[in-house]
């Protein structure tokens, strides 16, 4: 062999050039919008921007105002009630339905189609239907009264104390199908032999679920939890359609607060502060999960 | 029913005895109405009812006349079926000053939907392909940011997007909204495509490189034809997602190009005039029709789409 | 003899993990070279580096005298066959074969000519219009070979091409690949973990372990004169018997001693001086131990049969001797019951001695 001069390593920047070019939109979105946008909003939440963003810092003023606004407090309370209950109920109902569906039943796909179809509908449609069903004059309350129970009262959308439960009913109707589907996928992922072994050992079915299957489905539960939780924080359309935040401001939620201050009240600073609080809420949910999921090991 | 089947098994049992065999033989008698089955199917049936009632109420209400609705029961079937509310919802319902019905919103939504679906899926599929097969330094970092971004509430990023679009001169235009849908559809779609392309045998990709195909040739001639199912899944995801969008529609379009959801909400929740519940329900059904049709037609693929998007996160 | 592929000082690491370390390898023109090793030894990584599918961290790769270290795979003059066939599922066999040529914008009639030749050699003409899904495993692998064939290249790379096939088909295609090599006389580099494939196909075998080539030699040399304990244990099934002991002087002759039993080393071709007291490992292949045969060797050892494994053509005996369990391969006709006593003799001309410390051949 003749001695060749060692070939120069080509410039790293131009390796895979097409892939880099094709990834420009992704990089712009990830870095520019998701990362940069969030930072931008956080920074401007410390300014007194009104109609237009202005770089005049006022420290924590916006946050102080935010937390002394009763509408915001109500929003946070509503979010907490709605969030906790909707987590509990959607996991509970979703898992129960999935467990029932996993009993090798007939018409499985028909049942699944029925449980899941609301998920295909928008929150606007969901909100409007339930607004109609919960209409005190013609809806559930009216019917029960017309059956003779004159004093029956069920008017969540007109009663500030329970309006959030009216929204919860609609939210659960729309979302539990998804949870059921995720749970069912988790159940189907469990080795058949586990069931055979527990049958041979004579363990009752409920015990197998409680002590073997559910612990095995831990990852599915956690992922579902994160998905529902991050959806809850974003809840907006449902409230707009079902109650418009009313009666009064009894069913306000943070996402609506942000929108109203940014685009209606022309008080951007308040909107930014409120949205930063939303980001904080999500971070509180996501960071422990991300730590558990990806903490020890490196991402593959 | 149960009796007859029991009789049949008994008869089979006699035959077995006649054939002189000791011990149980033939099919074990099945009881269709065991306690377990009653509870199982009973519960499922009640649950199914809860999920179906709103759809039923929508349909029934939309087919009644207003006098009948005022008389009473939202659950009772219409005594006299009328399609008047549907016609009115589609062609005459008012939002603000416009009284040309939901049809305007429908066509607006179609105009938004088609380019948004095409652009968002193209961009995300190329990114996913890039991430799966042509990794470069930092690509995984960008992807991680993208996925974390999926959990950030839109409200946090929406105003910077408004500014960016205003700077580009596309705020309030169709192009602007298409960009917005592409941006916020990126995380889930990129994840979907990346996982799919990564699941294809890597040797196929290597073989194509030995054959001399480059980035785009491999994408269009090898990957794309193999990824058709995942494209359908992505399409289902995007069609329903974009059609159902409300927030971006409100923020990024002008009133005369509002998408259907926004217009629907304005019709139903308008404070002026007499509430026409039958028209409202017809309008609601019309708005829900597109995603519902997609859902019923796609069946298992829809489930696969949401599961793929959700579980693999 | 000219070199077709030469690899100089090649290194590759993924982060802190060193997969290949300062590896040198010269492959002669027209040679059939097998890279053999267990999974994770770096053999496939090396092949992928040669193909240009992986970027080395350091070193140079030459193909036909041309430095291709940073060339695109397509410009290296190679064809590659993969374990999972890697046929494009949506294309017919014909389109699969021609894809690379169409990408390179080869004229139509040239493409047709090359496909005709390849499909004739591989006897896949009747399959040309079919899709890969309609083919059997063996047919698919033939098409995959065809795809490398139409490229008209100097070097063929095989990445475990037979591992996905069942045993019968594997041995059939093995013969066919050998025939193909005789017919084409191309350079072929073939990665496998199957030692039978390696021994039957190779002109030379390179045995790899943790990113380094342990021994590079002709199959029979590797089999009979392994350079170290690893190679000795890796090649051969059932594997070589290893007896740990030390060298000693007995009546003016050097012997191997273990558990108080002495083995005469007469006839052993030593590479280094056999100094008494040196701790060594004696390696004896099962077929190099003889049972009740007074022709071979000078001394007889008594042993007891522990277990017998009849395999049809031969019979494998597991014996207890000198504190070790040994396997011995004998003809299939002779049977021994467990507990039977017999006499062993050893052919030291084909035995191996390794240093217990360095594990290198003595």
From TrEMBL, chain A:
<feature type="transmembrane region" description="Helical">
    <location>
        <begin position="272"/>
        <end position="292"/>
    </location>
</feature>
<keyword id="KW-1133">Transmembrane helix</keyword>
<dbReference type="GO" id="GO:0055085">
    <property type="term" value="P:transmembrane transport"/>
</dbReference>
<keyword id="KW-0472">Membrane</keyword>
<dbReference type="GO" id="GO:0005886">
    <property type="term" value="C:plasma membrane"/>
</dbReference>
<feature type="transmembrane region" description="Helical">
    <location>
        <begin position="208"/>
        <end position="233"/>
    </location>
</feature>
<feature type="transmembrane region" description="Helical">
    <location>
        <begin position="79"/>
        <end position="101"/>
    </location>
</feature>
<dbReference type="Pfam" id="PF00528">
    <property type="entry name" value="BPD_transp_1"/>
</dbReference>
<dbReference type="InterPro" id="IPR051393">
    <property type="entry name" value="ABC_transporter_permease"/>
</dbReference>
<dbReference type="InterPro" id="IPR035906">
    <property type="entry name" value="MetI-like_sf"/>
</dbReference>
<comment type="similarity">
    <text>Belongs to the binding-protein-dependent transport system permease family.</text>
</comment>
<keyword id="KW-0812">Transmembrane</keyword>
<feature type="transmembrane region" description="Helical">
    <location>
        <begin position="113"/>
        <end position="133"/>
    </location>
</feature>
<feature type="transmembrane region" description="Helical">
    <location>
        <begin position="21"/>
        <end position="46"/>
    </location>
</feature>
<keyword id="KW-0813">Transport</keyword>
Automatic annotation (TrEMBL), chain B:
<keyword id="KW-1133">Transmembrane helix</keyword>
<dbReference type="InterPro" id="IPR000515">
    <property type="entry name" value="MetI-like"/>
</dbReference>
<dbReference type="InterPro" id="IPR035906">
    <property type="entry name" value="MetI-like_sf"/>
</dbReference>
<dbReference type="Pfam" id="PF00528">
    <property type="entry name" value="BPD_transp_1"/>
</dbReference>
<feature type="transmembrane region" description="Helical">
    <location>
        <begin position="112"/>
        <end position="132"/>
    </location>
</feature>
<comment type="similarity">
    <text>Belongs to the binding-protein-dependent transport system permease family.</text>
</comment>
<keyword id="KW-0813">Transport</keyword>
<dbReference type="GO" id="GO:0005886">
    <property type="term" value="C:plasma membrane"/>
</dbReference>
<feature type="transmembrane region" description="Helical">
    <location>
        <begin position="141"/>
        <end position="162"/>
    </location>
</feature>
<keyword id="KW-0472">Membrane</keyword>
<keyword id="KW-0812">Transmembrane</keyword>
<feature type="domain" description="ABC transmembrane type-1">
    <location>
        <begin position="106"/>
        <end position="298"/>
    </location>
</feature>
<feature type="transmembrane region" description="Helical">
    <location>
        <begin position="174"/>
        <end position="197"/>
    </location>
</feature>
<dbReference type="GO" id="GO:0055085">
    <property type="term" value="P:transmembrane transport"/>
</dbReference>
<feature type="transmembrane region" description="Helical">
    <location>
        <begin position="38"/>
        <end position="59"/>
    </location>
</feature>
Automatic annotation (TrEMBL), chain C:
<keyword id="KW-0472">Membrane</keyword>
<dbReference type="Pfam" id="PF00005">
    <property type="entry name" value="ABC_tran"/>
</dbReference>
<protein>
    <submittedName>
        <fullName>ABC transporter ATP-binding protein</fullName>
    </submittedName>
</protein>
<dbReference type="GO" id="GO:0055052">
    <property type="term" value="C:ATP-binding cassette (ABC) transporter complex, substrate-binding subunit-containing"/>
</dbReference>
<dbReference type="GO" id="GO:0008643">
    <property type="term" value="P:carbohydrate transport"/>
</dbReference>
<dbReference type="InterPro" id="IPR027417">
    <property type="entry name" value="P-loop_NTPase"/>
</dbReference>
<dbReference type="InterPro" id="IPR047641">
    <property type="entry name" value="ABC_transpr_MalK/UgpC-like"/>
</dbReference>
<keyword id="KW-1003">Cell membrane</keyword>
<dbReference type="GO" id="GO:0005524">
    <property type="term" value="F:ATP binding"/>
</dbReference>
<dbReference type="GO" id="GO:0016887">
    <property type="term" value="F:ATP hydrolysis activity"/>
</dbReference>
<dbReference type="InterPro" id="IPR040582">
    <property type="entry name" value="OB_MalK-like"/>
</dbReference>
<keyword id="KW-0547">Nucleotide-binding</keyword>
<dbReference type="InterPro" id="IPR012340">
    <property type="entry name" value="NA-bd_OB-fold"/>
</dbReference>
<dbReference type="Pfam" id="PF17912">
    <property type="entry name" value="OB_MalK"/>
</dbReference>
<comment type="similarity">
    <text>Belongs to the ABC transporter superfamily.</text>
</comment>
